[in-house]
Amino acid sequence: MTLPEDILAYHAAQSAEDRRICDALAATIDPHLSAKAEGVVARKIWHRHPVWFIDGNPIVGYSKLKGCVRLLFWSGQSFDEPGLAPEGSFKAAEARYTSADEIPVKDLKRWIEKSVRIQWDYKNIVKRKGRLERLK
How far, in Å, CA of 86 to CA of 70, rounded? Predict the structure, then answer.
């Protein structure tokens, strides 16, 4: 897996266990999302955290929080999946990990597949004055 330098630097700045979590998430997200997406997949540090996009729309990312690493799917509340908890006032859902062993890879792959099929248009949320529209 060849990640961009900014994401590799983000991983390197984490503690050993948090780096293992980030590496494990990226090792599943990057190839699986790229294989499933029909649009252009990009990944970069966005708002100081690794995020993957399809055609400019944020899909999935993770961030270091106090005591855990949070995995976030921007449209995750629409997945109707156990293991993902609502986050924020829009459509995002999260899972939190304190160890790489906690990551349910089979579930993560299913969530990634759903993230390709179920998208809300966060890319244009400012233009629409905070109103989300469903894509695809």
Answer: 12
Q: How far apart, in whole angstroms, are the C-alpha atoms of residue 87 and residue 18? A: 21
Q: How far apart are alpha carbons 5 and 15 in whole angstroms?
A: 18
- Tally the C-alpha atoms within 13 A of residue 87's C-alpha that lie toward its C-beta: 17
Which CATH fold would you assign to the domain 5-135? Answer: Aspartate Aminotransferase, domain 1 (3.90.1150)
Give burial (CB, 10 Å; 0-12/13-18/19+) of 55: middle
Torsion region of 47: left, alpha or beta (phi above 0 gives left; psi -120 to 50 gives alpha): left
Could you report the per-residue pLDDT of 5-61, keeping only the tens digit for each? 999 999 999 999 999 999 999 999 999 998 888 888 999 999 999 999 999 999 999
